[in-house]
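Methods — Computational structure assignment.
A single polypeptide chain was analysed. Its primary sequence is given first, followed by the predicted tertiary structure written as structure tokens.
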Amino acid sequence: MTRTDRLLALVEELRAGAPGSYSTRSLARRLKVDERVVERDVEDLREAGVPIKADTAGTGWFLDTVGTLPPVVLSPAEAVALATAVGRDGASPFAHSGRAALLKILSAMSMAESPEDRRLAERIRALILADGAPDVPAAAVVEEAVATRKVVRFAYAGRDGTRTEREVEPVAFVAGVRDWHLIGWCRLRDAPRIFRIDRIRDASLLEEIASPRDYSRATPHVTDLLAAALRVD
């Protein structure tokens, strides 16, 4: 059993037993692994956002089914379409979150019965979790900046290779033909700018929440603002 299969099987065991709980020993016996492996897998799943909780006695684990998906039935074509859509653009700032979300959907799917379906499921999981998938530097920090409106500080490599320190008030992401960009108000330039995500280095969030800006004073229409911002530093 691969680690991915073991994690999915662990979630299925907890889902089947909900709202009851299973002890670590019981889960280890069901999955035919050491108790330390179960403890590590439970911790990894919890860190990934799977709502596994300790019972009131502190001796077992249960799956909090509030807000979770019931078993999902997808056709092979639908499952492949989802996996392909998520895996096609590793440069997306949402790539990691997309893979995590798709894994949650797959964990909610009914277990495949036929050998063909099992092989297909394994190929889908391999596509999602493939080692060497593109990892965009600082993408997770930039994603959080846009979601929380926190000012983000980073080093930026210009087209000529010059590195500058920036503080940017984030506005949104823009998907280009080949690249993803961050739209924001650049305090260094005192103007709206678009930054290529793959040129951002050493990003960190400040505690400061960006104040609303009246972009209409600089440009009469939002489209004009985006046109001005398309001057990529």
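Note: The longest strand covers residues 163-175.
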